[in-house]
Design brief:
Number of helices: 3
Low-confidence stretches: none
Mean pLDDT: 75
Distance between the termini: 23 Å
Strand content: 15-25%
Number of strands: 4
Shape: elongated
Amino acid sequence: MATHACILRLLHRDVSAGNVIIRPSLSSKFIQNGKKKVIWEGERVLTDWELAKEIPVRDPSKSEAPKEVPRQPERTGTWQFMSVAYVENHPNWPVTVADELELFFHVLLFYAVR
């Protein structure tokens, strides 16, 4: 799921429970009590890439990081799954890789508690 985004150097910027689709598959083997075992090797898809943004490439000859500015002045993403740093510092804070990882944590937490 995230492999292609890493290769293309993209930040999704709108990771939420509605944008993560996981279809588990059922094993054909029965476990001891006669029920089938659920295997989490099904399809995994991250949808809604229209808000994605390319991660700027750092020039090794320069000591400073590339200057990033938010592409859109309005908030990007689903409120319930935004990172704390992004919510507190918006609109002066562009979405970073750390924010994106926190979004996935919020989705995982959402499904764990639900």
